[in-house]
Amino acid sequence: MTFKILCSDLDGTLLSTKSDVSEFTVSQIHRIKERMRIILVSARMPKSMVYLQKRMGIEKNPIICYNGALVMQEDKQLNSTIIPIDLTAHLNNICKAHNIKLGLYHKDEWCVGETSERVQKEILHTKAEPLFEPTFKTLERWEKKNIGAHKIMLMSTKPNIDAISSELESNFSSEVNCYRSNDTLIEIAPNAVSKLLAIQSLLQPNESLEDVLAFGDNYNDIEMLQCVGYGVAVENGRKEVKEIAKKVTLSNKDHGVAQFIKDHL
Q1: Is residue 104 within 8 Å of residue 152, measured between CB atoms?
Q2: What is the mean pLDDT of residues 158-185?
């Protein structure tokens, strides 16, 4: 197989643990990184991706953050799409009525009103520290700076998340993408972004989507895997993702991406 670009999701795909890639993965990336661009594609913030880039020696390459809402290359911002501050404030009011807490993300800033088991897991797994401040203060501060959210994380119990899911789908689907990452979490992104669109924005004149090999595991990877030259799902991926992939490799815990690289590149 010959490709010019390798794009990979992180959590549940390239990462063998919750926060790191294996030595096997590092060795395989090192083997191919001079002949392919390796682009990490994730819902994570930049700082939670850069340490992984450095570990693999690919820190000069672009990263696609927040599922495509922010594209960075080293310290340079290439593309940015935000959820407007007034819409963010409106969503916050609805969430308060459902007893749902918000995590607000802008570039490398992550703001939460209080700590929780979920917040502590995020700190552990992404090597990022949040700013603890009441959400209304974050919104006031961002409004003065004329910035909005690259991502909003909704955190609560399963019944509360169940209750708000249909309301978000009915009333906000034209403005934001809502992605339920598990029973107690919903990630909200600007409607005009996707991993695929971000990849397209990074193609050089002599490149097309056919030149892209991509790996993923979850619903937000489906479009990317369907539209690139060759989409590969990991064994632990969602059933729907494995069904549309051209190939299914080993699970992330079994270093499936690295094994595919070793066998085919």
Answers
A1: yes
A2: 90
d(CA 252, CA 210): 24
Helices 85-97 and 135-145: angle between axes, nearest 10 degrees: 170
Which structure tokens are listed for 190? 């600007």
How far is 42 from 65, CA to CA, in rounded Å? 5
> Which DSSP symbol is given to 149?
B
**How far is it, in rounded angstroms, from Cα 24 to Cα 13?**
14
Class of residue 169 by CB neighbours under 10 A (exposed 0-12, middle 13-18, buried 19+):
exposed
In this structure, are residues 165 and 180 in contact, taking their beta carbons and an 8 Å threshold?
yes
d(CA 234, CA 260): 10
- Rounded to 10 deg, the angle between the 256-264 and 23-32 helix axes is 40
Q: What is the pTM of this model?
A: 0.94
Identity of the residue numbered 37: R
Question: Per-residue pLDDT for 112 more than 90?
Answer: yes
When pLDDT is averaged across residues 143-157 and rounded to a whole number, the result is: 95
| Tokens 């309301």 found at | 167
Contact between 17 and 48 under an 8 Å Cβ cutoff? The reply is: no
* Planar angle of CA 180, 71, 168, nearest 5 degrees: 25
Residue 62 in contact with residue 5, Cβ under 8 Å? no
**CA–CA dist 218, 106 (Å, integer):** 23
Comparing CA positions, the residue from 245, 234, 246 lying closest to residue 25 is 234
Taken as a whole, the chain contains a residue count of 265
Q: What is the Cα gyration radius of the chain?
A: 18
Residues 133, 145: Cα–Cα separation, whole Å:
16
